[in-house]
Write a structure and sequence with these properties.
By secondary structure, the chain is of the alpha+beta class. Helices cover 33% and strands 17% of the residues.
């Protein structure tokens, strides 16, 4: 059987479709070889819609003028609505940077209730924003800070003090380690802008690696680069699997009139969390 496949190309087409159709991204300048990492970087900057219990830090307080906006956002969090309208406008930029997120794993959410004047996909911007750390089933509301307080060290201190289990994954091992240099919040802001990963010292002596996965050499999420490569390997594994089943595929195609003498193109398809392989000119499909 002459079976031709390029599952990686099919995968890239699917990622491009999601980025353009669902995430409103303009990808004309995106390089094909970088698209997988850019996809995972873009996905990192969004919050998967799912119901979450809201937990407030001990000192959490909302300004009176934003109580209605916070109440509306809280309902959306608890009911599993898409929170993208409350996120940064930069989530539509495929290379958009977010130092607060990539360093400390914390998102910021605007408290507007009306639509944004220039982009109807978002709510209006607010000066105070909610800093939150979402997990699969919970939303940890660290506090409400002024927009731009991305490197304020009290943010990570508050997260750790209220929910120390959330910082354990980034904890540096070893009780005798210390930093030779301590950086100010302003230093952290500038070093983040340069794409430099930093260790975060906490007031209780704990040292943290970047809780949000850190930066890669080109400034996007380092974790996204790793995740993209792991997914690429999985996609190649699916391609190997379908070639290992070539005789089974041939029998199924022959039932539809395939003679075995011509090339057949197999394509990897995606939908509703599953993948399957279709073959040009034939009805049969194989789940993978």
């Amino acid at each position: 059987m002459l079976l031709k496949t390029d599952f990686e190309a099919d995968w890239i087409v699917e990622m491009r479709r999601i980025m353009e159709e669902h995430w409103a991204m303009e990808l004309a300048s995106a390089k094909t070889e970088e698209l997988a990492a850019l996809f995972f970087h873009a996905r990192t900057r969004r919050v998967e819609p799912r119901p979450r219990a809201v937990h407030l830090a001990n000192a959490f307080a909302c300004p009176l003028e934003h109580e209605a906006g916070w109440a509306e956002l809280k309902v959306k969090i608890e009911t599993g609505e898409d929170l993208s309208p409350h996120l940064s406008l930069k989530i539509e930029d495929f290379k958009g940077k977010d130092g607060l997120l990539l360093d400390w794993g914390i998102y910021h959410f605007h408290l507007g209730q009306a639509q944004h004047a220039n982009n109807k996909s978002f709510v209006e911007r607010t000066g105070p924003v909610v800093f939150g750390f979402p997990t699969d089933d919970a939303f940890h509301a660290v506090g409400i800070y002024q927009h731009g307080a991305w490197s304020d060290s009290s943010v990570i201190e508050t997260l750790h003090a209220n929910w120390p289990h959330l910082t354990q994954a980034a904890k540096m091992q070893g009780s005798s380690m210390s930093l030779s240099q301590r950086y100010t919040d302003e230093d952290r802001k500038m070093l983040r802008a340069a794409g430099i990963n930093l260790i975060t010292p906490l007031s209780d002596g704990l040292l943290l690696f970047p809780l949000g996965g850190g930066y890669s050499g080109n400034g996007i999420s380092a974790q996204a680069v790793t995740d993209a490569e792991l997914e690429r390997q999985r996609i190649h594994g699916l391609q190997d699997l379908i070639h290992d089943r070539a005789s089974e595929v041939a029998r199924a195609l022959k039932a539809e009139g395939y003679t075995g003498n011509t090339e057949v193109v197999g394509r990897l398809n995606f939908g509703n969390g599953v993948q399957w392989v279709s073959f040009d000119g034939f009805r049969v499909c194989f789940a993978v």
